[in-house]
Amino acid sequence: MDFSTLCVHGSGKRYDTTGSISVPIFQSATFAHPGVGQSTGFDYTRVQNPTREYLESTIAALEGGVDAIAFSSGMAALMALMELFSPGERLIVSDDLYGGTHRLFRSISSKNGLKYDFVDTSNPGAVEAAIAPETRAVFVESPTNPMMQVTDLAEIARICKANGLLLVVDNTFLTPYFQRPLVLGADIVLHSGTKYLGGHNDTLAGFLVAADAGLAEKLRFVAKTIGACLSPFDSFLLLRGIKTLAVRLERQEDSAKKIASWLKGHKNVKKVYYPGLPDHPGHDILKRQATGFGAMISFAVDSPTRARAVLENVKIIKYAESLGGVESLITYPMLQTHADIPAEEREKKGINGCLLRLSVGIESPCDLIEDLRQALESN
Q1: Per-domain residue ranges for the chain?
Q2: Which position among 170, 187, 234, 371 bears the catalytic label?
Q3: What is the CA radius of gyration of the chain?
Q4: Spatial separation of the C-alpha atoms in residues 116 and 108, rounded to whole Å
Q5: Is 46 an annotated catalytic residue?
Q6: DSSP 47-114
Q7: What is the pLDDT of residue 329?
Q8: Residue of 65, 278, 97 lying closest to 172 (CA atoms)
Q9: Are 256 and 294 in contact (CB under 8 A)?
Q10: Is 373 a catalytic residue?
């Protein structure tokens, strides 16, 4: 079945007999037993719910995994993932990460005894050199947030397999429509479903997708024990958003290419970070391992004053956190998504007062370019 058809029609067993086109919202916390020692397959919504199960089977099919587990947010999914590891064990992680991931690793997981080695995962040699006896996994964002570094996932998967390590990939930016890390050798895929999968800036969600049944069983045990499950109504909203995933991403990527090219030629823009540009260092790798470049652009303007002027003068584009929705959003990573990263580390990565991050929506690219033009040239 084609990906776009799967998005529209989903995958999995339906638990109603009404012929409803939309998956019903089973808004029930608990389910009655037919008899002692008997079950309908559903006992308590924290463990499973028919609406959520349908969503999970759809996500698993889209990513090519054996199972997917839905959580109340992307951070809840990440927290559950960390429960696979024990105190004293190490993870190699991308040195350019979403700030919330960085905060969890540095403050919560480190307190609980996990250790992290931050390396440039776009350099396979650096990953290999960082492997220690206590290393258990490699955690990769690709492209990274916000500097858009691209990792060769197949090569990192080869290194992981040779050393008995798990490979976890945050696939939020590209989604399974453009990139399928499990097919490239990853063991677990992480998503903030709040972003492109939901697509409408109206709900929070997170997913873990496992490549094999053993990992899936461990993750499900953690999920039911922690209890950060996705509600039936939010599961319904995610299913509704996924129906248009393919068409949204095609439109957003097409606009992003046009906007990135325009930004590159503007006198007040000093650097554009978009893997769809031919001169991006990860362009060829992404062409090989993905079917698209996505719709996230970071760009540096000529001064912090200019950056703040852009944020305060955009009209169609909204100055707001998050990404991946139908509305275009612009953020200031230094003060928003990456505020908890020490200033020295931010500066070293280029996350400074000049850097802006743009999530391209489905508006007319001409309108978005005009909005950026007037904001970049405002006094």
Answers
A1: 3-242, 246-376
A2: 170
A3: 21
A4: 12
A5: yes
A6: T--HHHHHHHHHHHHHHT-SEEEEESSHHHHHHHHHTTS-TT-EEEEESS--HHHHHIIIIIITTTT-
A7: 98
A8: 97
A9: yes
A10: no
Which of the four CATH numbers 3.40.640.10, 3.40.50.1110, 1.10.10.10, 3.30.300.180 does domain 3-242 have? Answer: 3.40.640.10
Q: Which of 130, 151, 148 is nearest to 140 (CA)?
A: 151
- Over residues 39-72, the pLDDT tens digits come to 999 999 999 999 999 999 999 999 999 999 999 9
Contact 183, 64 (CB under 8 A): yes
In the numeric block, the tokens 């997913």 are attached to 207
This model's pTM is above 0.90: yes
Return the bridge partners of 119, or none.
94
Kindly report, residue by residue over 263-302, the tens digit of the pLDDT: 999 999 999 999 999 999 999 999 999 999 999 999 999 9
The active-site residue out of 195, 306, 349, 357 is 195
Written as one letter, the residue type at 227 is G
Which residue spans within the chain are E strands per DSSP?
A: 67-71, 90-94, 115-119, 135-141, 166-170, 188-192, 206-210, 269-273, 296-301, 318-319, 329-331, 355-359
Query: Helix, strand, coil proportions of the chain in percent (round to 5)?
Result: 40, 15, 45
**What are the b/e assignments for 334-351, b being 16+ CB within 10 Å?**
beebbeebeeeebeebbb
Residue 155 has which token pair?
Answer: 């090569």
Predicted local confidence at residue 15, as pLDDT: 80
Between CA 281 and CA 286 the distance in angstroms is 10
pLDDT tens-digit readout, 130-146: 999 999 999 999 999 99
* Paired tokens of 82: 């960390």
Reduce the secondary structure of 305-329 to three states and give it as a string.
HHHHHHHHHCCCCEECCCCCCCCCE
Domain 246-376 fold is Aspartate Aminotransferase, domain 1 (3.90.1150)
Is 98 considered catalytic here? Answer: yes
Q: Are 259 and 365 in contact (CB under 8 A)?
A: yes
CB 119 within 8 A of CB 131: no
Q: Are 271 and 302 in contact (CB under 8 A)?
A: no
Tokens of 229: 């499950």
What is the Cα 143 distance to its own chain's centre?
A: 10
